[in-house]
Amino acid sequence: MLNALLIAGTAIVSVVAVATIIIRTYNRLVADKQIAGNSFAQIEVQLKRRYDLIPSLVEAVRAYLGHERETLEAVIAARSQASSKLPGVGQQLNDPNVVGTWAASESALGGAIGRLAMVIEAYPELKANETVAGLTEELTSTENRIAFARGLYNDGATTFNIRRQSFPAIVFAAAIGFGDDLVCLQFDDQPEIHQVPAVELVA
């Protein structure tokens, strides 16, 4: 009888210990995933700001360089493609295909912005335009915020992935809803569009 009680007591203690480990691990994974998700939400905020700035910059440049129609249309098309891929990515950060498709569209937008930056650099009077200079400054500031937020997200995703892959989480992570790593963001850095100080052109 005593042996049976000892065995039962040991079994109960073991079950409680395992349950405690699972609950603690679950709560940590939830917290880590939430932190990464919040960081990605900051990326979304800044990307949407960039998407809003781009048409204004294109229109300001178009007033000077209507003949650069192909470059301007490429920027708008790339911006449209990237912005259409963004919704829903934040809920599928563990899906490499979804994140990869969106990241590719962001890289394409970065290339288009880079070509626009080269066009702007080639025309001193355009660089000196107050509207263009203000928009490029805002765009550069936004790009810096995107890069910072992306770094925070990658740190959070890495923390989650390490915890998920470590013992004891690796044993039961899939069973409690954490079967996949979060995808770190590796799309190309967006080129900076440097603001050039306004200068007065002497006739």
TrEMBL record:
Gene3D superfamilies, alphabetized: LemA-like domain
Secretion signal, residue range per the UniProt entry: none
Record keywords, A-Z: Membrane, Transmembrane, Transmembrane helix
Pfam families linked to this entry: LemA
Highest taxon listed in the record's lineage: Bacteria
Subcellular location: Membrane
Entry membrane topology: Single-pass membrane protein
Keyword Transmembrane: yes
Assigned GO CC terms: membrane
RNA-binding as UniProt keyword: no
PANTHER family the UniProt entry points to: MEMBRANE PROTEIN, PROTEIN LEMA
Family indicated by similarity: Belongs to the LemA family.
Protein name per Swiss-Prot or TrEMBL: LemA family protein
Lineage: Bacteria, Pseudomonadati, Planctomycetota, Planctomycetia, Pirellulales
